[in-house]
Amino acid sequence: MFKILKEKYFMEYYTNGFIETNISLSDNLVNEIREYYLSKKIGHNDFPKFFAYNEHLGYMMQKKFLNFFLKVFPKFGKILVKNFYNKSYNKAVYCEQIFIKKILKELLEKGFFRFFKTHYMLVSYDMYLHSNHLSSAAGIHSDLPNFHHFYETENDLSIYIPLIDLNYINGGRLKVLPEKILKIPGNILLKLLYKYFSKNLLYLDKNNYINPNLISYSQINAFIKSKMHQELMSIYKNMISLVKTQYINDFIETIETKGKVLLFNNKNFHFAEYWKNTQQAREIYVIRMLPIYDVKIKLKNKLHGKPFNNFLLNFLENKIQFYEESVDFSQISSNNKIPL
User: What is the CA radius of gyration of the chain?
Assistant: First the structure.
């Protein structure tokens, strides 16, 4: 992260687990976002689409019996995850992408680029989360990289925008364990993916980048079962148990007003406080950004049928670039990438 953020802001992130940007979106834009997502049906939940081949497998590993049961009866896992997220969120909407350009433009005008040392950041996708006082709060977790996105890093940054106040009265505050205390080494997965799949020429494009669109689910499943990946999952299992028993008092809470932008890394351990407001729902809008490393992995351009990975923040030229297809990493000089 030190190579991504300017030193002043890196220290704030490293110490607190997040950066208070002191930037707020305009009321008009926040209200427009809210109105659009409130029109979505209650019960719209995209999370179950991500169950197979992703980080939820890590959550299940925390309990030995459940881990064994899911391996024997994998279809039960899908039902379990669906029920879990239906209890946690009334709506979870992924990858609509219609507000990203407007938000980035407003952030650029309000000095958002000042936080970054790196030359580029990929803007990958967005999500909207809606829950009420009857929803079970999301427990302590770290969002491990998953195979639906394929390219993810341990230093992803989220533009986290509450669409309603998160405070002592409403509850719903985000609480983060700072990196200075403990963090999972997530970039190792990028290295493992490259090491495993780059050996097979069938998975490479004309620029010798791994093309995840050429890799079938059965081949990904073989990687998941490999010793190297299982060892990584074991590390995650042990660390989350450690966090829950030894570091619960070290989480730092945020107090965010409607429309105020927070920068945080969802790969750090975090959880959301119980929502107390019985009259209004907790609404969060998130844009996920990814740093660009010098690993030869091509970006996917569809996430469950929806375009993503098609915005680039160009800090060298102080501009936002949009691509019809996904951003082509092979066209970015290695000098402008971060060493993995």
Answer: 19
Determine the longest span between alpha carbons in the chain, in angstroms: 57
Written as one string, the DSSP assignment of 192-233 is HHHHHHTT-GGGB-TTS-B-GGGS-HHHHHHHHTSHHHHHHH
Are 190 and 156 in contact by the 8 Å Cβ rule? The answer is no
Q: Quick one: which H or E segment has residue 302?
A: strand 302-303
Task: Indicate if the pLDDT at residue 76 is higher than 70.
Answer: no
List the Cα angle 31/34/40 in 5-degree steps: 150
pLDDT at 129: 94
- Pick from 21-30, 84-93, 118-127: least confident: 84-93
What pTM does this model have? 0.90
Q: Which of 19, 11, 287 is nearest to 176 (CA)?
A: 19
Residues 6+ apart with CB under 8 A from 145: 55, 152, 153, 154, 186, 189, 190, 267
Beta bridge partners of 121: 291, 313
Give the three-state DSSP class for 132: coil
Is the pLDDT reported for residue 147 higher than 70?
A: yes
Q: How far apart are CA 288 and CA 9, in angstroms?
A: 18
Element holding 287 (H helix, E strand): strand 282-291
If pLDDT is split at 50, 70 and 90, which confidence band does 61 have?
A: very low
Residues 6+ apart with CB under 8 A from 245: none
Going from the N-terminus, what domains does the chain have, and what CATH number goes with each?
A: 7-330 (2.60.120.620)
* Mean pLDDT, range 151-176, rounded to an integer: 94
Question: Which SS3 state, helix, strand or coil, does residue 49 take?
Answer: helix
